Amino acid sequence: MATQAREPNPETAEKTPRRRFTPAYKLKILAQTDHASEGQIGAILRKEGLYSSLLSTWRRQRDEGTLGALKPKKRGPKPKQDPEQKELERLRRRVAQLEHKLETAELIIDVQKSLAIARDPARDDRAVREDLIAQAGELSERTGLRQACEALGVSRATVYRRRRPAPVKSPRPRRTPRALSPGERQEVLEMLHSERFVDKAPEVIVALLLDEGRWVCSARTMYRLLAQDGEVRERRQQRRHTEYKRPELLATAPNQVWSWDVTWLRGPTRGQYYYLYVLLDIYSRCVVGWTLAHRESADLAARLLRTTYDKQQLDLIN
Fold first, then answer.
1. Nearest to 27, CA basis, from 75, 68, 79, 78
2. Long-range pairs, 227-235, Cβ under 8 A, ≥24
3. How far apart are CA 81 and CA 234, in angstroms?
4. Measured distance CA(276)–CA(294) in Å, rounded
5. What is the tens place of the pLDDT at every residue in 298-317?
6. Judging by beta carbons within 10 Å of its beta carbon (0-12, 13-18, 19+), is residue 213 exposed, middle or buried?
7. CA distance 180 to 157
8. Beta-carbon neighbour count of residue 32 at 10 Å?
């Protein structure tokens, strides 16, 4: 049965056939571009509709030898390889890998032996570590850095830091000292002693000078300069509390001085508390007596003291 040819559809565009370059065309383009300038090469590529990468590929193919190298490669399945030949090549690669590993292991063992022989017990640990790092760097050129560091027990990060030392930082410029010079200190003291500011506090003086657009120093600096000369004291007419020395009790043996306290302990219901009376020996930090009560009372405290005296075999009260 005859089939009728299908007519082309005018509404759909036909597929553009893929461009194929013959060896003669490639040699022609290469001959034109070999002796052309950069601008002329660009004009040729645009005129022929080619990419510069094609020129690099064609030149490489031409340098390989004959014109046959410019022939397009045939596509299709690769020829099947003999299974015995394939297994033989795999074994050869495996043997080469094992020989390389054996050579690397022998080299590492030789380095470890040399280090063990040359190691001196009197050497500093830091010097030994630096020697190991140097040996790891030399060994890494033949075995790789990872294997060298694992064999000698050195961190790879340390070797990398030795290879690329940190740049030397330029010293920072020293700050200009902001302390007042002796002349400036004397000027501030004279201003504080002047008739205008003699009765004013340093905070008020700083505020008045700022209103005038002047800055001499901070209020804290003024206080510090006045304190150096003993000129900071209370000038108000008021009574000051006398400073008494705090009483101190010293114990040189147990049961000489006791301390006591009453602690409130929360009970099972809201608002209910228990009272824990504790007697503590300040020398031995030993709890000599305690009791738990429902209320706080002086009678309970006195009873606890008498019981504790009897327990400690002390005769301190009548």
1. 68
2. 229/189
3. 108
4. 9
5. 999 999 999 999 998 887 55
6. exposed
7. 49
8. 13
CB 131 within 8 A of CB 109: no
What 3-state DSSP class applies to 119? coil
Q: DSSP 3-state assignment of 96?
A: helix
Reduced to 3 states (helix: H, G, I; strand: E, B; else coil), residue 263 is strand
Q: Model confidence over 270-285: pLDDT tens digits?
A: 989 999 999 999 999 9
CA distance 140 to 132: 12
DSSP 3-state of 262:
strand
Report pLDDT digits (tens) over 156-209: 888 888 777 777 777 777 766 778 888 999 999 999 988 888 888 899 999 999
Kind plus residue range of the DSSP H or E element containing 23:
helix 23-34
Phi and psi, residue 309, nearest 5°: -60, -45
Question: By the 8 A CB rule, do 88 and 94 touch?
Answer: no
Q: Which amino acid is at 39?
A: G
- The full set of domain ranges for the chain reads 23-70, 88-163, 190-228, 258-311
Helix, strand, or coil here: 288?
strand
